[in-house]
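Q: Predict the bound structure with adenosine-5'-triphosphate.
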Amino acid sequence: MTRQTQRWVEWLIERALLLCAAGSVLITAGIIGALAFETVSFFREVPITEFLFGTVWTPLFYDAQFGVLPLVGGTILVSVIAMAVAMPAGLLSAIYLSEYAPPRVRRVVKPVMEILAGVPTIVFGYFALLFVTPLLQRVLPDLALFNALSPGLVMGIMILPLVSSLSEDALHAVPTGLREGAYALGATRMQAALRVVVPAAFSGISASFILAMSRAIGETMIVAIAAGQQPRLTANPLQPVETMTAYIVQVSMGDMPTGSIGYRTIFAVGTLLFLMTFVLNLISDWLRRRFREQYA
Amino acid sequence: MTSASRRIAGDRLLQTMSILVLTLSLVALTALLYDVWSDGWRRLDWQFLTSMPSGRAHLAGIYPALLGSLYVLLVTAGLALPLGIGAAVYLEEYGGGGRLARLIEINIANLAGVPSIIYGLLGLGIFVRVFGWGPSVLSGGATLGLLALPVVILSTREALRTVPMSAREGSYALGATKWQTIWHQVLPGALPGILTGLILAMSRAIGETAPLITIGALAYIDFTPSGVMSPFTVLPIQIYNWISKPQAAFAENAAAGIIVLLVLLLSMNAVAIVLRDRFQKARA
Amino acid sequence: GGGNEQASSSTPAAVIAIDGSSTVYPISEAIAEDFGKTDGAAPVTVAFTGTGGGFKKFCRGETVVSDASRPISASELEACGQASIGFVELPVAYDGLAVVVNPKNTWATSMTVAELKKLWAPEAQGKVMQWSQIRAGWPDKNINLYGAGTDSGTFDYFTEATVGTAKKSRGDYTSSENDNVLVQGVSGDEYALGYMGLAYYEENRGRLTLLGIDDENPANGAGPIQPSFDVVRNGTYRPLSRPLFIYLSINALAARPEVQKFADFYLNNAAAISKEVGYVSLTDAELALVKARLAARTTGTMFADHAAQSQKSLTELLQGRQ
Amino acid sequence: MTTVLRPLSTLTTGAPHPATPVKIDVQGMNFYYGAKQALSDITISLNANVVTAFIGPSGCGKSTFLRTLNRMNDIIPGTRLEGRITIDGEDIYAPSTDVVGLRRRVGMVFQKSNPFPKSIFENIAYGLRINGLATSRSDMEGRIEESLKAAAIWDEVKDRLTESAQALSGGQQQRLCIARALAIQPEILLMDEPASALDPIATQRIEELIYELKSTYTIVIVTHNMQQAARVSDRTAFFWLGRLVESGPTATIFTNPAEKLTEDYVTGRFG
Amino acid sequence: MTTVLRPLSTLTTGAPHPATPVKIDVQGMNFYYGAKQALSDITISLNANVVTAFIGPSGCGKSTFLRTLNRMNDIIPGTRLEGRITIDGEDIYAPSTDVVGLRRRVGMVFQKSNPFPKSIFENIAYGLRINGLATSRSDMEGRIEESLKAAAIWDEVKDRLTESAQALSGGQQQRLCIARALAIQPEILLMDEPASALDPIATQRIEELIYELKSTYTIVIVTHNMQQAARVSDRTAFFWLGRLVESGPTATIFTNPAEKLTEDYVTGRFG
Ligand SMILES: Nc1ncnc2c1ncn2[C@@H]1O[C@H](COP(=O)(O)OP(=O)(O)OP(=O)(O)O)[C@@H](O)[C@H]1O
Ligand SMILES: Nc1ncnc2c1ncn2[C@@H]1O[C@H](COP(=O)(O)OP(=O)(O)OP(=O)(O)O)[C@@H](O)[C@H]1O
Ligand SMILES: [Mg+2]
Ligand SMILES: [Mg+2]
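A: Predicted complex:
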């Protein structure tokens, strides 16, 4: 290859890669486009303040009310529970696999955990409803059959491999020299792990957290099955709730006539969800940039 | 020496805790798998694998769904892998960390949080209608490809970041072009992480139900896909369908279907896992 | 090339594409299966996007048969009209709604429609919370309610039949798209009450107790009627039974012999199949009327004037339009 | 001109030294990387408050040996050690050994400098924190300044303590790693070519430091620089292809070695 | 004893040299890491087939300067260069410059050795492959052997060419990186402390290599070892706090420098 063709090939490759990256923007544009039209129609009929600040969500009832807060609350409640399981447990598993476990254990356990990520979410939903909830009810007699706690926990288990696998990769990639440096100072494995290796892998770990959080917020079927689909503004995890996604799936897989206000609600809720995750990502991006350590 | 013993205790504690957590999640997994297995193993036989679906539980099989899942995953991987890795490489190696690259980055993280059902709406609007692909394997695979894309991009970027700068410098100093450096040094170094992302993304795609129902993947179909333009169904839809039926016998079918899905998933991932193992060992 | 272009126009021309209600789905699925075994049958695909989603595709010409658990709505009618999609509306079976309680419930055996209205009306939300508030003598225990997802045909139907207006319902109850989930809920909760498709009760007899329903209209049989396939079919289990429909594209019927063949096959087998999948079949007389309607290719809906038609029986409606 | 060549005058200081107790005792040690033997039958004892230099051609096993002394090789998978190494009479490879405590006592400066991807300040503070050595913020700062000064890097970094250590030059990184090891005041200090990237002045300061530290520490230093070995060490051990050829007082090794191999190596007549 | 101190006899070979054309010309160059200026107003020209040594205390900017010559600093974000650097009269910072081609012509050995995480064989083969230099498998093997021999590491690795380069000792890695740079036969060779981790014998071989290569290459070497600078270089440049204090024939710099600072440094009277 002459120098000239080589440069040309390089140029071509860069453009091709740029196209790939730009593709993601197209997708977003597509999503916004898919959401925007019906959302605008929705807000022609329902004042945005009622939507954002109302506390009763009964859009499909005869006397419809469009206060989205119960859905937002349900989403936050379930996601918080899921993240409370997935983040510490995923990170701890990752630390164990990367820093403590013999290589053989690591080689077996990691893929086994990853199976969890492939179980269809409906299966997790039934697992939550038929297995976990009854189990929890033995300890918590107040627990309703449909509740936020059980799907939250199960969702945490479901996204755990996302956290543990990606974090483990990041930890594993930290150069051994850094660990050696810490050990040579008399660090225990814990101290080396928590204060040198984890910070050095922070970028990858936080990426796994972001993905997990996004996944928790966007997860649908588990909550649709096990949380009760009852839009209710509560912080009590023992009670039934409905999340934004569960609502969307309920409507889009239901008998709702298109073009009706009920049909449009899913786009309004979808848009709000989109904006919420956007803000969340802005925040985590900022956090990540602050705490990232770059090793050469 | 008390501080030392405290530190040792801390170390033990962390180790114990992480083993505990890991065990607990493995126990949860085992419980789930056991639950599924005990419900479904009786239905697992050759007939189940090779039969068409049926309204009669004992006759029903998953053949079209199994093949449909395979077809769709091929399309999904064929789309999400090159696009995802390409985008990640651009952002990490070419993008230069500018404002635009950052915006794209946040945008991608954002896409990961878009509920799958909205991807379904997007796929319906664009692939099925605008592109006129209909409710075909291609539409389904492309929809899931978009869904899987952010996971591939994010994990690939992180994997690229773990490749030390000195490896790039070494390559440049030998007169390697940027692409040669990426292809020969950076991508191989990042491969374990890329494969993990791939495993997770494909795992997610293979278990998705809602978006495929939205784009019109079928619940009943008595033929196998003949190509990318053929109508199709996939395992999760078949499972969902069975789970929704009142008859208890279908619950057994559903469980058996889940087992098949997991085996399919595992055998697909096995390749990636073996590769990842190889490369991680080579790097250590 | 060429093969691709042809295929990309949507599904292959030979396929009979069905989409729509998940309630009707089991019937269409079983019919499609049996149809597939007949000689020279065209391939059939069945999906369940929901009645609304099904109509949306149907009115775009993407499917030739639409399953529906309710009649087509005015806006959907308009969409079909704009796309010049004509259709034949065919009732194919009945679905009964069952009001169920937990087997441990010893006090309730039946309820009147008035009591159901009192319990499920929006005004009841936060107020009617105990069994004793429904009928004197029932225990002072909190009543836990389970019902169909608010976007399902079942919800529309139940609210219309009990409260009087579709979609008018209290909101503080547990809803699910999936009736198996409701079965789970009621069977695990001593003070529960819920409604679901009759088929789900049939498959879970041991775990649920069925309530008789009294519409206080002696014309439909006096006193509470214990639901069964028979009473659904003979019209005495009112108001909690409803017809299920398929909508056939008139253009496809005309242009594609295999669609005509499928439609005939559907009606010939509807009775047996509905029974098999847990629904209530139409009477022979009703089926004859439906077949006639298909033969005549009568287009349009029998339910254009919704309020007036809701009181009529299916037979009356079928005859009235002919 | 002659000042370029530092005279070996310091050799005399290294020659006869008071007998101190044995600090590190190695008996019949073999070390393997997987199937490959990297060290064969090493027997040597290192006395307290003595500076021992390890010399020998590249790849002969110096770093490997150094790393057996604080069990740093443990973390390389597939390695195996036979024989016995004791420190203060305790077998450091006994199952009961507290490896963390061992490493705390046996400090190490690595051949390839490995600063943490943190600020310069945090690089030193890390060891102090995990060992609970600083009683207060000002104590911490004091100790950090002290060790940076000892490693002859204070002046260069005092205004940029919060900057990333990875933005330092090669030699600066090396000195930072020396400072990091000093800060926690181990009993034994293992230094793998601590001055390889340092200019003569910095090298001299490190050598002075080693001389100062000798009164309280036991020091092992790997170096390729014969003059440096001659200047700083009391005793020298010469390695060759994974074997310990000879060890003894530095003056003896350099002027009158017992083995022909040693003589050839130190006089550069080799190969 | 005197053999330990290598005599400076080689100085004479470095002193007067035939006037060769200017290969690298640097005019008024300033270099910044973000806001921090690392090099100020450097003006120097390096002649073809001449070995130039860069000396100066740690952190003075030697590596930075070296890395400007093949634009390796380009890949550190936030860096900036002012002034003009030409090679063979061409401005290497001109927008039209083919950076890849530049680096192909200007080989580099880094201060911290950085073998690829591949086999020893592949480490060398890589450069040959991407530059399309080997015509056949046997040609490839020949070139690899040749460059490993030149870097004085062939004997140690010839039986383990397929093993990972990361399992080599520090000095072996360094020599591997030298071999890697040699294999692609650049015109200019930049070596950042190539012998810092090497024993005297290996060092001597590398120095001999540099002497041999001089006839075809232009060589810049950074070293902290004054004797080494004196032995191998024809010209020496002395850096100090980001400035080029003085440059000239090596003999002059070491025996009769113009600046007091230079004299202090080379005689070790510094600091
Ligand atoms: N990536 C960087 N970012 C910011 N400052 C840097 C970076 N690299 C080096 N420096 C600083 O620039 C100055 C010159 O560094 P350089 O690496 O060129 O020194 P050097 O002469 O090679 O020193 P040594 O002999 O220790 O390798 C030093 O003060 C160093 O701290
Ligand atoms: N991780 C490893 N796996 C396998 N072999 C190794 C490993 N590290 C070192 N070796 C081999 O063991 C031998 C001794 O290596 P060691 O690093 O101890 O040498 P050294 O004396 O420190 O050399 P140098 O002066 O070059 O640093 C060498 O042949 C080396 O290739
Ligand atoms: Mg070494
Ligand atoms: Mg340097």
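A: The longest helix of chain B spans residues 2-40.
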